[in-house]
Structure formats: structure tokens, C-alpha cells
Amino acid sequence: MKTDWSEIMREAEKIANQLIRRRVDLSEAQKLLDIYVQSGYDEGMIGRYLEMMAQNPPQRSRKSQGYFRGLKEIWRMWNPELVGKEKAMAWGWGVRIARVNLKR
User: Fold this and answer.
1) 2 vs 91: CA distance, rounded Å
2) Angle CA(74)–CA(80)–CA(22) in degrees, nearest 5?
3) pLDDT, tens digit, 9 for 90 and up, residues 69-96
């Protein structure tokens, strides 16, 4: 199956906009991607992870819980046609685009 780069990049732009709008820590967004890939693209596991982290995050800062709530909402509302590796690629590019846009 051929990779649909135009769809990946369209979805990446959506993710970047949401990450910026919700002021999510991009390092946490990148960690979420890493976990998604390492889990073998397990959607259920990601949902449980985000629920746990949004409700009871490790003691780091007060902002962490807000970041995880934002990530949870972004992930929950994001319903691309992409799955697995291509979904991960779109998320990863979204994080990169958000980083570039925040540096402007």
C-alpha cells in the first residue's frame, strides 16, 4: 500500500493547530507518539494512558495535568482516515509543524 503523503500532511496541519491552540507541551505530544509506536499502534492503550495521565499524572508540575487533558481531547476528537503507521506519521509531523510555527 502506497503512503498517502497529502492526507498525512493535511492531518498533520490539523494536529499542529490543535497542539498550538490548546498550548500543549510538545515534548509530551512527542512522548505520546513514542508510546503509540512502541505499543504497536494500540489505540486502546493510548486511550487508557491518556485517561490515567489526565486524571492522575506523576507529580511534576501543575501544568502537566492540563497538557495531558489537552492531549486526551485532541486524540479523542481526531478521527483521521489514517491508521497505524500513517496515523503516527501524521501526529509526528504535526508536532514538528507546531514547533516550527511556535518559533516564528
Assistant:
1) 18
2) 20
3) 999 999 999 999 999 999 999 999 999 9
